[in-house]
Design a protein that fits this description.
- The structure is a homodimer.
- The first copy, chain A, is mainly alpha-helical.
- Chain A has one domain: Arc Repressor Mutant, subunit A (Orthogonal Bundle), CATH 1.10.10.10.
- Helices cover about 55% and strands about 5% of the residues of chain A.
- The first copy, chain A, has a two-stranded antiparallel ribbon with strand order 1-2.
- The longest helix of chain A has 17 residues.
- Chain A is elongated.
- In chain A, about 35% of the residues are buried.
- Bound molecules: FE2/S2 (inorganic) cluster (FES) (2 copies).
- Chain A binds a DNA duplex through helix 3.
- Chains A, B: One of its GO terms (cellular component) is cytosol.
- Chains A, B: It comes from Xanthomarina spongicola.
- Chains A, B: GO terms for molecular function: DNA-binding transcription factor activity.
- Chains A, B: This is BadM/Rrf2 family transcriptional regulator.
Chain lengths: ~160, ~160
DNA sequence: TTAAAACAGGACAAAAATATCTTTTTTATA
DNA sequence: TATAAAAAAGATATTTTTGTCCTGTTTTAA
């Protein structure tokens, strides 16, 4: 449903939301290892995210990526629409040119409710809120290193 | 979510379910025009579907594709798993290697319920039942030619 | 001042998905 | 039996997505 690029982007941003701030920047190398994402590909992605103000970066020794408070006020939807385009959740599941209650395809009513819900979730919840929930309820964004993102594993 | 190929396949089969039987076969040319799907690509697809017994075909003049009664007893899931593989609805929305209630990603519980539901729908309902519903409730599988698939438009 | 660390940017490469073309086989029927 | 219509099959082409490589630029600690 989402492209690899988009999945990488979301996970990276959530990761940065969990682990970084202006005093603790994280380099591409670390992020790509932790999340098991191809490094050069991720580098490109982060560039793009940086340009669109979804992440912040600084160069030089001790440089790296982090989420500023402003960055954290963005939503997952901002990521999706940047990477995968903003028609992602308007499209018909069977590829018809128009999706709507007035000309529903055979699975429209099964799919539609869900799309709405997910869309809202993505559009309303800020990154900050997602991060909060991850910390609280324990969600995973990497399988490699379970512990780093479990609740209570952080200071 | 589904590949183009898979969407084409589902729509073609539903179309055949609506309009064809052993006495009324339909050629690739017609199907591709009606559904607005690239012809040679569809031809390949139908070959594949034929091999897997999801559609039936005969060569020669007055030949074409149709759904036998056996074909109609298959499910949409059979199509999806053939074309897109049977992991399609087991995969994590964010691309994590394992998807499950025990190690949920941040959107797992939003997505999971839906996936279950759609999966069931696709797995339980036969093509015949889908076709029935299309006829009864009026569902679209092509936008180009609305009328051909609306209820009451057929004999 | 300098060297290393890190991001930035452009060009390139590989793989997968999508689409097309050409030839062969089958078959109804004139 | 010849012919034409249609699918089957295999080879090829295009596009998109994904991934890599190399060189440059900025920053900063020593
Ligand atoms: S019309 Fe197909 S999902 Fe809405
Ligand atoms: S773990 Fe991500 S969708 Fe289930």
């Amino acid at each position: 449903m989402l492209s690899n690029a988009c999945q990488y982007a979301i996970r990276s941003i959530l990761y940065l939301g969990m682990r970084s701030d202006e005093e603790h920047k994280i380099g591409v190398k670390v992020i790509s290892k932790e999340l098991e994402v191809p490094q050069p590909f991720l580098a490109k992605l982060l560039q793009q995210l940086n340009k669109s103000n979804l992440v912040t970066s600084t160069k030089g020794p001790y440089g790296g990526f982090y989420l500023s408070e402003t960055n954290k006020q963005h939503t997952v939807w901002d990521i999706v629409s940047l990477i995968d385009g903003n028609e992602k959740f308007n499209q018909c599941f069977l590829g018809l040119s128009k999706c709507g209650d007035d000309n529903p395809c055979p699975v429209h009513f099964t799919v539609s409710a869900f799309k709405q819900k997910l869309f809202q979730d993505f559009k309303e919840k800020t990154i900050a809120e997602f991060v909060e929930e991850i910390k609280l309820k324990g969600r995973y964004i990497s399988l490699k290193s379970f512990e780093i993102l479990k609740p209570d594993s952080d200071s």
